[in-house]
Amino acid sequence: MIRSSDEIAKMRRAGRVVAEMHAATRAAAKPGVTTAELDRVAAEVIERRGARSNFLHYRGFPAVICTSPNDMIVHGIPDGYVLAEGDILSVDCGAIVEGYHGDAAFTMGIGEISPEAARLLEVTERSLWAGIEQLRPGNRLHRVGEAVQKVAEAAGYSVVREYVGHAIGTAMHEDPQVPNYWPGTPGPTLKPGMVFAVEPMVNAGGPATVLLDDGWSVVTADGSLSAHFEHTIAVTADGPEVLTVL
Ligand code: MG
Ligand code: MG
Fold first, then answer.
1. In this structure, which residues have their CB less than 5 angstroms from ion ligand 1?
2. Which residues pair with 205 in a beta bridge?
């Protein structure tokens, strides 16, 4: 799907709302705060900007953000979990402006975190930027996953296979998917106007995942820490343009 400059302008505005949700939840996430409180903080941003939530009611999801602490990889439901010093927390945020979607995630430390946890966050964010760098006209989409995988595995970590990035536009999840690994077959050739959400999920241990009984929360099978960073990015003639920024 090729988006016009008008459509990309709307996605830039949706992306800005998502970036504001990041800033607000990041500032609020401290020891003693619940993940449900972070959801309220993010919902206030959506309301203030006159945007809509793409997460709320998505297949029955009950919140406007996902909050995934420690060994939880993605899709955690904000609840009464009280953040503690030393936790890491992944926060995934989305918003719709005039029918166009933004989607982005980050992982942060709560208070002081271990050097091992800090290294996982640094490597995972670096793997996202290595993937973003590949979003150039004429390149092939599978280069994104190859770049992510190379950074993560060089650090001794593993990338999750069951959950992947995606094209995005008038729906949050559009085809094609954007795996964080070599998918076994080459991806489509990139053209200006394509927009993707690139979102490496990197585990400190093995790649295996377990879906919890709530039907949403995904954790590492081995209990190791996991981090998740995501941006929504447009392919332009000049290279990648990250849309989920202030
Ligand atoms: Mg997301
Ligand atoms: Mg996404």
1. 92, 103, 105, 230
2. none
User: What pLDDT tens digit does each residue of the chain (246 aa) get?
Assistant: 999 999 999 999 999 999 999 999 999 999 999 999 999 999 999 999 999 999 999 999 999 999 999 999 999 999 999 999 999 999 999 999 999 999 999 999 999 999 999 999 999 999 999 999 999 999 999 999 999 999 999 999 999 999 999 999 999 999 999 999 999 999 999 999 999 999 999 999 999 999 999 999 999 999 999 999 999 999 999 999 999 999
Residue 188 alpha carbon to ligand 1 centre in Å: 22
Q: What is the CATH number of domain 5-242?
A: 3.90.230.10
Q: Which residue has the tokens 């400059």?
A: 5
Q: Which ligand is nearest to the CA of 55?
A: 1
CB 107 within 8 A of CB 83: no
